Amino acid sequence: MCGIAGYLRLDGEAVAQPLLKRMTDAIAHRGPDGEGHWCEGNVAIGHRRLAIIDPSPLGHQPMFSADHRFVLSFNGEIYNFLELRVELQAAGFWFRSQSDTEVLLHALTHWGTSALLRLNGMFALALWDRREGTLLLARDRYGIKPLYFAHQGDLFAFGSEQKAILALPGFKRQLDKAALLEYFTFQNLLTSRTLMQDITLLQAGHYAVLDTKSGTARLKATQYWDYRFREPDQTRDKREYVEELDRLFAQAVNRQLVADVELGSYLSGGMDSGSITAIASRSFPYLKTFTCGFDLSSASGIELAFDERAKAEAMSARFKTEHYEMVLKAGDMERCLPKLAWHLEEPRVGQSYPNYYAAQLASKFVKVVLSGAGGDELFGGYPWRYYRAVVNQDFEHYIDQYYVFWHRLIPNSMLSKVFSPIWQDVKHVWTRDIFRNVFLTHDNHLSTPEDYINHSLYFEAKTFLHGLFLVEDKLSMAHGLEARVPFMDNDLVDFSMTCPVNLKLNNLLNVVRLNENEPGNKTARYFERTRDGKQILRDVMSRHIPSSITSAEKQGFSSPDASWFKGDSIEFVRRALGDKNARIYQYMDHSNVMSLVNEHLEGLQNRRLLIWSLLSFEQYLKAFD
């Protein structure tokens, strides 16, 4: 796990190593164990190292092929590198190190870009071909590891984080207003845009080639993999699916235990992290585990259940782990926000500061931590979302329904008012088109409820889960910590995509509809009938963890901010957002923003996600404007 960075002068001018060092210094937190720089002519490639596999100097990067034709800078882990190494040795390759980096380098030189489909792991890489004058950039299938690039004038730059690119002197910083509108609609960026104009995120499952000898020096991106959730061609007995999932899950966890440094696991009290801990603890007696809890003395309603420390402690006792925990209070959000915004680089999904503290805690004891991310998105953990879009007339009707549901922050009816200072610049942006374009290369001939639910799983894996991975990466690497996600093992993902929907959800045949003429609390009855997700995963995990955990309702890793924003943190919110001179009001209208905020402060609406996003955007502008 590391950080990569580099730049090219497309006008042929020589690069400068001090500038490359500025780029790698900007992401030094990603690799505190070492650094490497290589410059030749108009090309500069750098690396920051967090030594996990083969921490010896033989794993140093940038790494060169035996003939010195190729130069590789790589961030991530290849969990099947030992199997690939055997294949490559049979093909005549000789190895100097025990690192997965050298295996990756030989794989790319031997198989070309087809090697990417052979990799089971997480990665972002840059490979320079000195003979052909081409730069290859690539990200893993699921987008666990980020990779950004930028092209301004005669400068082309790339990096694991945007701040590596921004470290280059003369790089023009300008907010992408269209991306801002996209974010404040979905609380996420569904496209490859970033909030920084001219900086682009290479999409998950893509590689891109920059040919500097072609005359145009344009980057050409190619998709090499995509999710495809679908019903199986042939159905099998449920018991076969359960046995296969049990085998694949244990295999996935065990694959990701490879490390030459100490490894631990998050243990939130939920099913996914608990099951990972159960499997990992078999190989690592007294495995270190980590939990963040919350002070609920001022919480109310549903948030009174947000502290899962008691469940985590019970599972720690069961699996005999060495357990550590910390308790977050209302003021902790305000305290970490400036650092968090700098590391996160731009607002993304959810309220992520608990993740920052969880990573901070784990990093005090281990270099590698296992995370339960991905289980919900692969196995239907959010049924109340999918059922809303099951009853449709056709694909376009489905898009209309699901698009409106994913308006997490500001509804379309308010966008022109909230963004009135810049509305003339962004009124041409149709966020429905942005939403629909997620399915642009997908088969959209849908007819059954299963088709629509599989489409929803596809959307959430491509967008929501990808956003979670960006948050996980930035906030773990902020503390020099590698976060691994066993649910994203290739074999396990492949299984999940053809696992029948009726094994994930119980109420498929009783499609949930909301009758607007029905008296009483319709929403409560709707949620009562849509709490049945991850059924097959619950069946499997009941073999490993207590039934009280596997039968519990889905609960995310969230702090009680709906209560805190109305209570302990109310003055901070009023001070930060009520100030007419706040930076966000260069782009947003103060009175319309505060009308939405006050609806939360007065208890009329739960707008905790909007308030968090506004606070995050303000800190982003302070850090990067």
Q: Architecture of one domain in CATH?
A: 4-Layer Sandwich
Q: Biggest sheet: strands, sense, closure? A: 6 strands, antiparallel
What percent strand?
Answer: 15-25%
Q: Share of helix among residues?
A: 40-55%
| CATH C-level name of one domain | Alpha Beta
Name of the CATH superfamily of one domain: Aminohydrolase, N-terminal nucleophile (Ntn) domain
Query: CATH topology of one domain, anyone?
Result: Glutamine Phosphoribosylpyrophosphate, subunit 1, domain 1
Shape: globular
Strands of the widest sheet, in order across it, are 2-3-1-9-8-10
List the total number of helices.
27
Low-confidence regions = none
Q: Over the alpha carbons, how many angstroms does the gyration radius reach?
A: 24 Å
E-strand count: 17
Distance between the termini: 29 Å
Oligomeric composition of the shown chains: single chain
Structural class: alpha+beta
> What's the rounded overall pLDDT mean?
91
Primary descriptors:
27 helices; single chain; globular; 625 residues; six-stranded antiparallel sheet; 15% strand; alpha+beta; 17 strands; Glutamine Phosphoribosylpyrophosphate, subunit 1, domain 1
